[in-house]
Structures are given as structure tokens and as C-alpha cells.
């Protein structure tokens, strides 16, 4: 293992505001665009967040995983357009939002009228993804990220950081699973539109995953 290198990090970014996120509607596969305010949210944080010598330095990036939904793709474009080029990135359903199935487009209050005891963290979504399916998908993404980090720590590559541009529930599940907790812990994490979280490691050890920062974009707004 290469000595003296900074520890690698995973940055997870939620897309900016949409009409449905503003209204509390569960937005999984529906391809909802950013609102004007959502665009401005991302534009405002981008020059403070991404660039040479900043928190997310493109020179340090192994890769970026981006959800195929337009709200995530537009967020990715807005984040990096000011630096005059886009880093290596992959559009993949692996980082898509929880598939809400029969509850797509409904608010929590509307869902409670159908199923008064429903909790996504315990019950998943009928016609969509179960808790087990979501956990397995997120665990697969984490495995890929940690492989990038392992290659960096072993001196096989020089780039150390990974970025994921995704969604609210996906990011909350990812935080929970990264630190080796059950998926349901995600209910305790607040992930705002256009928010940034940092996942890393303690004690210079890839065996000690940690949450380093949450909702960092508030310092830029």
C-alpha cells in the first residue's frame, strides 16, 4: 500500500430542486426537470465546490457516477460546466432513485391513505423496489467505489476521489450502508436538494468507513 497519500473520498450530491421535490411527491423513474430555483441552487455552489484546489478537484477524480434522470444529468452539467470540461463519468441506473412503483408521484400523506402503516424503510414500494433490492443495489455501488479507492491506496492509480450525482432516498441509503448500518438508518439523515456529503475513512484505514460531512452546500448559500 502506497504510504503518505491522502485518504480517498466519495462525494455524493443530490440534484437540485424539482417541482415534485418541492411538493413532496415521490419521484423515482419519472423524468422531472429542475425548477429555475433548482438550476440556480446548483450554479451557486458549483464555483465554490469544484475546481483546481477546491474541495472537489477534477485532477483528483477517478470517475463520476450520474443517474440517467434529467434532474441528475442537468445537475452534473451545471456543476462542471464552469471549468470548461467534464470529467470521466458514467450514466448508470445503478445510482438511480428508489423505484417507488405504485407510489410514484404520490406524497407521503396520499400513500398513508392507501397504507396507513407504510414506511419505505421497512416496507419498500409495491410494484417497485423492495428494501432488500435497494440495499443490494446500493451495496453494489459501494463495492465499485471501494475498488477505486483500493487501487488508489495500493498505488495502482493516481486519482483518489469518486463523485455520485443522484437522489434523496438513494443518497440516504448510501450513507447508511457506507458506514455499515442497515438501510433503515437513512431515515435519520437530511439530504437537501443540491446538497453535498462526504464519505471517507477513519484512521487512514479503508476498513473504517466514515461519514465526514453532510449538507455542506449550506456554507455556500
TrEMBL record:
SUPFAM superfamilies: Phosphoglycerate mutase-like (SSF53254). Signal peptide: none annotated. The active site is at 15 (tele-phosphohistidine intermediate), 97 (proton donor/acceptor). Transmembrane segments: none annotated. InterPro entries: His_Pase_superF_clade-1, His_PPase_superfam, PGM_Phosphatase. Substrate binds at residues 27-28, 71, 97-100. It holds the Pfam family His_Phos_1. GO terms for biological process: ribose phosphate biosynthetic process. GO terms for molecular function: sedoheptulose-bisphosphatase activity. This is Histidine phosphatase superfamily. It comes from Gymnopilus junonius (Spectacular rustgill mushroom). The lineage of its organism: Eukaryota, Fungi, Dikarya, Basidiomycota, Agaricomycotina.
Amino acid at each position: 500500500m502506497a504510504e503518505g497519500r491522502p485518504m480517498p473520498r466519495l462525494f455524493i450530491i443530490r440534484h437540485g430542486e424539482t417541482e415534485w421535490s418541492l411538493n413532496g411527491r415521490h419521484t423515482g423513474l419519472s423524468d422531472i426537470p429542475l425548477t429555475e430555483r433548482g438550476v440556480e441552487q446548483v450554479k451557486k455552489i458549483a464555483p465554490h465546490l469544484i475546481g483546481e484546489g477546491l474541495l472537489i478537484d477534477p485532477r483528483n477524480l477517478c470517475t463520476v457516477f450520474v443517474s440517467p434522470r434529467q434532474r441528475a444529468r442537468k445537475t452534473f452539467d451545471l456543476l462542471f460546466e464552469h471549468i470548461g470540461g467534464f470529467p470521466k463519468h458514467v450514466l448508470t441506473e445503478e445510482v438511480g432513485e428508489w423505484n417507488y412503483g405504485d407510489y410514484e408521484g404520490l406524497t407521503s400523506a396520499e400513500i398513508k391513505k392507501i397504507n396507513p402503516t407504510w414506511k419505505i424503510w421497512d416496507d419498500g414500494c409495491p410494484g417497485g423496489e423492495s428494501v432488500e433490492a435497494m440495499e443490494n443495489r446500493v451495496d453494489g455501488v459501494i463495492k465499485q467505489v471501494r475498488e477505486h479507492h483500493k487501487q488508489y491506496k495500493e498505488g495502482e492509480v493516481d486519482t483518489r476521489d469518486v463523485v455520485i450525482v443522484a437522489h434523496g432516498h438513494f443518497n440516504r441509503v448510501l450513507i447508511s450502508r457506507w458506514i455499515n448500518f442497515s438501510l433503515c438508518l437513512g431515515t435519520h439523515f437530511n439530504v437537501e436538494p443540491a446538497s453535498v456529503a462526504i464519505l471517507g475513512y477513519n484512521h487512514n484505514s479503508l476498513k473504517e468507513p466514515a461519514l465526514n460531512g453532510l449538507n455542506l452546500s449550506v456554507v455556500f448559500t
